[in-house]
Specification:
320 residues, alpha/beta, Rossmann fold, Alpha-Beta Plaits, 2 domains, 6-stranded mixed β-sheet, 4-stranded antiparallel β-sheet, 14 strands, binds adenosine-5'-diphosphate, binds magnesium ion
Length: 320
């Protein structure tokens, strides 16, 4: 099978260091630094005009910074833009129409532009078309596709040269729920293959289920960044736990009332809910004690990291 991406050997694939870009008096990007590791999906979140597209275009060598630098697989966008371009797949937020090309011709055109020849070109075009679910659309005009299929065609195009970094500028904007879910599955698969993925959105909820990390930008400046896990640990020392037991719910409730680190256990319908101020180790110990004490636990669920909460904390509600 043709590989879709070329994982980078080192942990960090994209490193942005002190990037600054001015348009006249406006500092569109102001001393921005962050990193995107291999195999991760990093959400680049901020309101319209925050500087996301400008940052991404610089990383894709389409624009020059006024200060700072960005490195892809250790290559500088300033010193070595050609090598960077070989490693980056960039999907812009809007597409140019290419008249009179069907899906396969469209991909073949860009495969040629990427220097692919002969059987290798055919093999690569077929592999990316199959991966992106375009196999039944091969003869369709490239401009006549639905928004979702058009998005997949352009994702396929960014994969033709087996990049290690994907930069996707607001790919979910305007997609219907099904197309969004399907697109998300493709992105996850690519990350699982080792791609580093930077994906922007001005709508938080769009990314909350996709990302392993976030970088939040406002007026050209980074206000928050890191893995969801680390950020959540910093924001919240407590986690909400949901517990379901078979049999005597009241007995389990009474037991929880005796436990340190357990706060305000409540019976909600057929379950117990409480706030827990211990770490994962302590949670595992509590679960073991419950089971050891004869409570028949069928569910013990820590409410996942809530991106909205993190976001509100970081931006104090200035963003949507
Ligand atoms: N080519 C340009 N010329 C002048 N101003 C620009 C240009 N590109 C972007 N800007 C401005 O820079 C700021 C950041 O824009 P952009 O990077 O597109 O933000 P985002 O993608 O987060 O919406 C905005 O205020 C925008 O108007
Ligand atoms: Mg933009």
């Amino acid at each position: 099978m043709t590989e879709l991406i070329t994982p980078t050997a080192s942990e960090t694939v994209l490193e942005v260091r002190g990037l600054t870009k001015r348009f006249g008096m406006l500092r569109a990007v102001d001393d921005v630094s962050f990193a995107v590791p291999r195999g991760s999906i990093t959400g680049f979140i901020g309101p319209n005009g925050a500087g996301k597209t400008t940052t991404m275009r610089i990383c894709a060598t389409l624009e020059l910074p006024d200060g700072g630098d960005a490195f892809v697989d250790g290559r500088s966008v300033l010193e070595d833009p050609r090598r960077v371009r070989d490693r980056v797949g960039f999907m812009p937020d809007r597409f140019e129409p290419y008249a009179n090309l069907d899906v396969m011709q469209f991909l073949d055109f860009f495969a040629r532009a990427n220097g692919l020849r002969g059987r290798e070109r055919l093999r690569t075009v077929c592999a990316v078309a199959d991966f992106c679910g375009l196999d039944h659309f091969k003869d369709r005009p490239a401009t006549g596709l639905s928004k979702g299929m058009g998005q997949r065609l352009h994702l396929a195009k960014t994969l033709l040269h087996q990049p290690s970094l994907l930069i996707l500028d607001e790919p979910a904007a305007g997609l219907d729920p099904r197309a969004r879910i399907e697109f998300r599955a493709l992105i996850r698969e690519l990350a699982a293959e080792g791609a580093a993925i930077l994906i922007s959105s001005h709508i938080l909820a769009e990314l909350s289920e996709t990302c392993t990390g976030v970088v939040v930008i406002e007026q050209g400046r980074i206000v928050l960044g890191g893995t969801l896990k680390d950020i959540a640990a910093g924001v919240r020392e407590r986690q909400d736990i949901l517990l379901r037991v078979l049999g005597d719910l009241d007995a389990a409730h009474r037991y929880l009332l005796t436990q340190p680190l357990v706060h305000e256990p409540q019976i909600v319908e057929n379950r117990l809910e409480f706030t827990f101020s211990g770490d994962d180790e302590a949670a595992a110990d509590l679960l073991a004690r419950l089971v050891g004490g004869g409570h028949r636990v069928v569910e013990f669920v820590a409410r996942g990291v809530n991106l909205e909460e993190i976001f509100m904390h970081a931006t104090r509600g200035r963003l949507q």
